[in-house]
Amino acid sequence: MASSYLLQCPNFSTNLNLTSKPTTLKTTPSFLLIKAAASSSNNNTSTSTATSNNIRDEARHQNLTNPQQNHNFSAKYVPFGADPATSTESYSLDDIVYRSQSGGLLDVHHDFSALKAFPGSYWRALFDSRVGKTTWPYGSGVWSKKEWVLPEISSDDIVSAFEGNSNLFWAERFGKQFLEMNDLWVKHCGISHTGSFKDLGMTVLVSQVNRLRKMNKPLFGVGCASTGDTSAALSAYCASADIYRAACAAHCQRAFVLSIDTDFDGCMQLIREVTSELPIYLANSLNSLRLEGQKTAAIEILQQFDWEVPDWVIVPGGNLGNIYAFYKGFHMCKELGLVDKIPRLVCAQAANANPLYLYYKSAWKEFKAVKANSTFASAIQIGDPVSIDRAVYALKKSNGIVEEATEEELMDAMALADSTGMFICPHTGVALTALMKLRKSGVIRSSDRTVVVSTAHGLKFTQSKIDYHSNNIKEMACRYANPPVSVAADFGSVMDVLKKYLSKTPKWCLGLEEPTCVATSEPAKVMIFGI
Ligand SMILES: Cc1ncc(COP(=O)(O)O)c(C=O)c1O
Ligand SMILES: N[C@@H](CCOP(=O)(O)O)C(=O)O
Question: Distance from the CA of 71 to the center of ligand 2, in angstroms?
Fold first, then answer.
């Protein structure tokens, strides 16, 4: 009985939602109308009865016949930072709760004693055995770690697009050419179902929504504030679970988007108020369930290095859930004996939205929210991050660092990365800038194994690339811009342009003398003819 509501600031650029025309908050009646319509339930994900021998049926059969799959792993919510051994406050994951009694954050705490009954080698082998298969739900990079994520959910309730298992790209040329590094890697979390790392968290959250609906919990909607990535993931996973159909009349199988005249922080404040008034489940990372999925990217990095721990992991930060999720994934691997240390974490912020950076620079003395200014890294244009306490914890525990990137720095870094064959988003440009600064200062050494987390697909942020390469950004030199050359559509004009371009190349290239063998040091030219 749930539908999905999204609160977005108006200039979101990356929205992949299946939306109707955006409605402003002033049209509250429409909002209520959908709530009232949420009366029937028809969830084909959780009641898969149609075809036999699909992967979900096979998983069900396996559960019945393979007792090894029955375990006593469990998890619960505890106040963030509290010692679970002594804290008297805890909640079932089936409770709808986002804050502790004192108003603080929550954390999902796993029963480590049950998990520790198995040695690290067991977990490594189990996770490795599931990679790249189509077995439900373990073919997902998130659900391949199900025992560490949501151990008690039935595989039947899981809503998954087999997210995760993303490419860990060896940035050979970027590393060698610009940083004298040989062991630089980019974890492409944005090469994913809806083009950002949010899929990792949303599969967990929407699966739990599916479970709560089956338990007849009072839950009539799912909602988030968003710059565009969280909302895209929420829409897609709710659509995949057919959650809209259950909520609305047949003509309205899509998310309900409110375009609100404020920034992300304003939207976040509003969705928090709305979700405390209405039975709408909060899908932002304030809800600690999301981080259980996102932490699997850290486990995956270790797995991809054959359980060797990198020296550094650099993560762009906005609302600051993800930096903690990475810490948590690494920390669990250490606690449970899969590895013997964790990497140092770097959180990279845009200078135009840098409250964590300022806090770090004050030696953690005083946190002040800021008014986030416009940045090309629009998904991290956040001045009052909800997970500030989680981020500080992660950074302190990992001997971490916070860096920042100006607009020019992040755009230049993105262009340089693209010039070496990557195609990254501006947030990844922020993380690469942090790396470049830390290399320059010698903090990160040439031989350090370093992973930069790429959080979204470059294709979601093409306008920034077009602006940069057209030299169309006020007060920015766009030093690495590569604008197209306009040329008339006739052979002579094209040849004139090409001859000028190729004037420094050997004469045989221009057909002016017999070809000789090509010197291997001669760089090849790449020419693209387009409109
Ligand atoms: C593409 C992208 N990168 C980075 C972030 C920052 O992640 P977090 O808010 O968890 O710090 C976000 C969203 O916030 C995002 O959408
Ligand atoms: N960039 C995010 C901001 C919200 O982050 P969340 O992880 O707290 O949901 C977005 O895409 O909306």
Answer: 34
